[in-house]
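REQUEST FORM: STRUCTURE PREDICTION
Request ID: SP-0412
Submitted by: Lab K.M.
Chain count: 1
Length (residues): 214
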Amino acid sequence: MKESDRGGVYLIRRRTDGKPLVLRHFTGNAEVYQKLLQYTCSHLPVTLEVASRGEEHLILEEYIQGDTLDFLLKDTLFTAKETREIVTQVCQALWVLHSLGAIHRDVKPDNIILRGDKAVLIDFDAARLYKPEEDTDTQILGTTGFAAPEQYGLSQTDQRADIFAVGVLINVMLTGKHPSKQLAPGRLGHIVARCTQVNPKNRYSDVLRLMEVL
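STATUS: Completed
RESULT:
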């Protein structure tokens, strides 16, 4: 069980077969969860049901058995090969989201679970759909250090905000530190620097391009 000001996440069991499931309760916008009801991806949890009343939402989804990257990073760092493999899978999950017009907006080690040799991106409570007619996001959400500058109300976020967070993620997996404190060495360091440009126009244009360079 995990609770915050915006809601909570609970592990429950289905009465019929005892299968563990995750129940999310949060206040905000569930439009991305609604989109995910129609899609499956091995790097995203399956969304089973969405129930809403106003801005209060209950989400029933697949339980992902494994350890978060945040937990694993407490004891070890990842090699360049491991980092490339894991981050490429995160990018595959993001490609599905981005193809739906959605931005995750909270890519970080806590929201990535390793299930065997597969990385699964979780938690879409901060996610939103891109709206071309708007200048800024309607709600400022994200995690300090991983959130792109535009997530603080400078402009509307698009898929390049997730690319910024992926760059920070790569650096943390390799060095344990934010790129502003210590940039990863070598080619991956160059990729991090490109991902984390302040101006979104100077980052990789999409996650397919990022996967290519990885």
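NOTES: The first strand starts at residue 2 and ends at 4.
Reviewed by: T.R.
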